[in-house]
Specification:
The chain is of the alpha/beta class and 422 residues long. It has 15 helices and 16 strands. It comes from Arthrobacter vasquezii.
């Protein structure tokens, strides 16, 4: 797949928006568009902004100047890669504009600060001996956040909290409707965290926010139709980007790809069915096969790949072969239904593709077949929890990006939701 130029990626980002108007009534929209471009591209030149938006140079300069004053972007070195005319000033997202990302799971609570542009700052993985309760998650996050605040230099601002949940989340108020592996049902975690941290909190499913991160910054950055499939301690979830937009469904629950049926008469699933992908393809089976101690699960991929190089690894190879076959069944259904051009595998699902190179691709492209499976590519998300944490931050950044000046003005005037500390 040919990688498009940066100008082409910028054009796609702004496609379909109402650009090119210099009237004062569109200033908020134009300010939002410029900030979104700088954020998603992790830096662009003034010349690129001018070409992409159709706004004149003086308008771009004024918009950039306002974003600089708001502390959301910084002007840096000249764009020396520009081939014609004078080098243009580069505009980069400010590292001082931050979101707090939180991702609880059955054995760890991951917390990190993420700056505009998708840069992770001092991530913390707080291991637990069992699935944490909602009050325990609130206490853990509050303690970790308190420590993070004291280490940040003056001038940094926390815009809000993005909460990635391994389960179903009410898109209206962030209530965890059900996170079966955590034993949670109808838990107001978002509201409790907001009260504890005095920050706005937005929650969503972990795999869905992972898909968002992949589409904005990761393997699917230049792809309009992709499926992100994430395997973690709490099972397998998914997110779907179609036509460049995240599919949410009628009530916000689209993307439950872990419940794709892959085996008749299979293992019981938490959804009440049997033979679902997440019931048949599990991280725990791999952990047990390599004898990985509790608290070292982040090293699972390395441990599996190392074990496969040793004698006596046939039992592990059999497990991987079985999981690959069942994952292929699920992927065939996903591809036939959604016709993506790319599938991005994250979490422990990366291991299956690395341990059996080309097996999934070959299974999708059965000899003689044509149609949706013909050209789908399989890519691996970065190792670790980064896409989930980056995607969670996107939840917190979205209200800011939609209306930069209005968001900051509203929260600066709201004494109950302090955003700055110094």
């Amino acid at each position: 797949m040919t990688s498009p130029s940066q100008d082409e990626r910028i054009r796609r980002t702004v496609a379909g928006t109402n650009l090119g108007n210099n009237r004062d009534s569109t200033r908020q929209h134009n300010l939002s568009t410029v900030l979104r471009l700088v954020h998603s591209m992790a830096g662009v030149s003034r010349a690129q902004l001018t070409r992409a938006t159709g706004l004149n140079r003086s308008t771009i300069a004024a918009l950039v100047g306002e974003l600089v004053q708001l502390g959301l972007v910084v002007e840096s070195n000249l764009d020396l890669a520009q081939q014609h005319g004078r080098p243009s000033i580069m505009i980069e997202p400010s590292r001082g504009a931050l979101a707090l990302s939180v991702n609880p799971d059955i054995d760890v609570v991951s917390v990190a600060l993420v700056s505009l542009g998708g840069h992770i700052v001092n991530p913390v993985r707080f291991h637990t001996v069992r699935a944490p309760s909602v009050p325990e998650v609130v206490n853990i996050v509050k303690a970790v956040y308190s420590g993070m605040r004291t280490s940040l230099p003056a001038g940094h601002r926390i815009m809000g909290v993005g909460l990635a949940i391994p389960g179903l989340v009410d898109p209206v108020d962030g209530t965890v409707i059900e996170a079966p592996h955590l034993g949670w049902r109808d838990e107001p975690l978002a509201a409790l965290l907001s009260d504890a941290l005095k920050l706005p909190v937005i929650a969503a499913n972990d795999a869905v926010v992972g898909a968002r991160a992949q589409a904005t910054f990761g393997a699917g950055r230049d792809v309009s139709d992709l499926v992100y499939l994430y395997g973690g301690a709490s099972g397998i979830g998914g997110g779907v980007i179609s036509g460049g937009r995240l599919i949410s469904g009628a009530t916000g629950f689209a993307g439950q790809l872990g419940h794709t049926h892959v085996r008749s008469g299979g293992a019981a699933c938490t959804c009440g069915s049997s033979g679902c992908l997440e019931a048949e393809v599990t991280r725990e089976e791999l952990i047990a096969a390599v004898g990985l101690p509790a608290g070292e699960t982040e090293n699972l991929e390395e441990a599996v790949m190392e074990k496969l190089q040793q004698e006596g690894s046939q039992a592990l190879r059999d497990i991987i072969e079985r999981q690959v076959q069942l994952l292929a069944v699920g992927l065939k259904s996903v591809v036939n239904l959604l016709n993506p051009s790319m599938i991005v595998l994250g979490g422990f699902l990366r291991i299956l593709d690395r341990a059996a190179p080309d097996a999934l691709s070959e299974a999708l492209r059965a000899p003689g077949t044509r149609g949706p499976r013909e050209r789908v590519a399989i890519e691996l998300a970065p190792l670790g929890e980064d896409p989930i944490l980056v995607g969670a931050a996107e939840l917190a950044f979205e209200p800011l990006i939609r209306n930069p000046a209005g968001f900051l003005r509203f929260h600066d005037d709201d004494a109950d939701v302090p955003l700055s500390f110094a």
